[in-house]
Amino acid sequence: MMRNSLARTDLAFVLHPQTDPALLEVEGPMILDHGNGVFVTDSSGRTYLEGMSSLWCAALGFNEPRLARAAAEQIARLGTYHTFNRRSNPAVIDLAERLVALSPMPDGKAIFANSGSEAVDTMIKLAWLYHSGRGAPERRKIISRRRAYHGSTVLGATLSGIPSMRGAFAWPDPGVLFAEAPHFYTGGKAGESEEEFADRLVGDIAAMIEAEGAQSIAAMIAEPVMGAGGVILPPASYFPKLAALLRGHGILLLSDEVICGFGRTGEWFGCQAFGFRPDMMSVAKALSSGYQPIGATLLSAEVHEVVRAEASRLGVLGHGFTYAGHPVTSAVALETLKIYEEMDLLARVRALAPAFRAHVGALASHPLVGDARAVGLIGAVELVADRATRRPFAASDGVGTRLIALALEQGLILRNLGDTIAICPPLVIAPAELDLLFTRLRQALDALSDTLA
Ligand code: PLP
């Protein structure tokens, strides 16, 4: 294959995350050059509709000029500063105020980080500090879930329930307990209703707490919609029942909102869409529409009060990142939130959601699709070998990967999570662009059917 010099240099020097190095050597890198609204163009000049918002983050598309201005103006004014030792800056102060006001914990506090992984790490550390402050330092275990994705740091990998993330990377015997993923399509038993399925899963967690001893468990972490694990939407009663169970045992409920936050589900935060009040939440990605690396952990007033007292007793909150509360990332995130409010983001998502759901639902009758699901502007189709028995394809068939390659040929970027195809377009997508996305996806599915026939 002919390669341009950029591609050759990439192959020579860049180690790509979440990439099969052997495949990269055969296929070469896909080099993105510029964006225009919901479209991106690669270095060969081909333009694609970006159906995944980069990695679930570019809510405002790929070239929002107000964000470019916000970054440039802040760099010209104060290009960098930290927030240790009482230091602050106007951008992070305004951002924190707006973010906390928007959240379901408007009397709480925000602490900043550079990524979703760091926001998750922060949340776990603060859960431990909280229990220490309440005289229960032995509460250290964390409940996570199979198929969960909570980031790529050592702690993130250890909390994640995706085998490729854990492999060589999860910390041995770290005190993480794994509950089942609330995926009714694959996990529901014959004759079981969705409500009964939710009861069974919450009952299993109750039994796990009983067996381990509630006094050893600090928190449970959960994504409202499991993203990287396969866009899994929980049954309606799952989280309300789970939240009540955990509260009864003094176990904190941590909502990982890194994908769900900022309108994706049709509510500002996924916990609001799925009916629970978390004790803390992690946010990132759409906080800056992905334009700057920023994350944050939000604490309820009750958690903050204990954390504040404990950190004072210790003399310091012994945690923090050099770039946490960075003026430039904060200025861009602040401008992002202003744009969301000015455009009435929730109204926009709610107006588009029925068409999105109808498009996803229409794919449910495709011969390769076993399950099709959506909430707000996030959805998925799950490919199966046999719709009647729900038998999956063999992993070695690589059906999901093949579908993504065929979609790319149609000018559409999507992402496969095994044989589940995730769809998560920028929230500024226009109705006609949404139609185009699904036309191209259907063409890719039909092309895949032809290769399997
Ligand atoms: N938590 C969730 C739910 C995520 O989906 C991700 C990333 O996709 C992360 C945490 C990690 O975020 P980051 O890649 O910014 O570290």
UniProtKB/TrEMBL annotation:
Its cofactor is pyridoxal 5'-phosphate. One of its GO terms (biological process) is biotin biosynthetic process. GO terms for molecular function: adenosylmethionine-8-amino-7-oxononanoate transaminase activity; pyridoxal phosphate binding. Keywords: Aminotransferase, Pyridoxal phosphate, Transferase. InterPro entries: Aminotrans_3, Aminotrans_3_PPA_site, PyrdxlP-dep_Trfase, PyrdxlP-dep_Trfase_major, PyrdxlP-dep_Trfase_small. It comes from the Bacteria. Belongs to the class-III pyridoxal-phosphate-dependent aminotransferase family. This is Aspartate aminotransferase family protein. It comes from Pararhodobacter aggregans. The lineage of its organism: Bacteria, Pseudomonadati, Pseudomonadota, Alphaproteobacteria, Rhodobacterales.
